[in-house]
Amino acid sequence: xxxxxxxxxxxxxxxxxxxxxxxxxxxxxxxxxxxxxxxxxxxxxxxxxxxxxxxxxxxxxxxxxxxxxxxxxxxxxxxxxxxxxxxxxxxxxxxxxxxxxxxxxxxxxxxxxxxxxxxxxxxxxxxxxxxxxxxxxxxxxxxxxxxxxxxxxxxxxxxxxxxxxxxxxxxxxxxxxxxxxxxxxxxxxxxxxxxxxxxxxxxxxxxxxxxxx
Length: 213
Description:
About 75% of the residues lie in helices and about 0% in strands. It is mostly helical.
């Protein structure tokens, strides 16, 4: 019975975490797009944080909740939910498996080695996400808006870079992919490193408890 109660309690905590992360994604995206108007997406930072903290399925669930909320706000289906899910899968696959160490728990040499290892993994994850999400997002844009001729209901971050590429006679599919790279270089850096930093803050208390004598 205690084991069952523990499972239910954990599920409730995960659900609350996912809901709070969804709200944070929504607010961050709304603030960046509609208030300070910077050419970034910033709608998956807390998907990454949840995935780093709680695992694959909570990360995907947060992504689904976030894009449901964004679709309601934007007044239509958002096909780029596939990018958010793919990003969570990549984070789960390439994530660092060892957390940043609390000072005095390891020697200085060990702490530096752990930090370098984590930074290298995060950089690899950043590069992979930037490349894969740009390609996938470009393909989705091409299929959904060009081949299927759906109307785009809102101006998104990459659209400002498309204007310059239109004059170069670049094929539409290539244009859709290339226009995302400048956005994703900054956006994925914030998502990966920001999401990991948030996850470390979320788990800091439990890690301190673990090393108490």
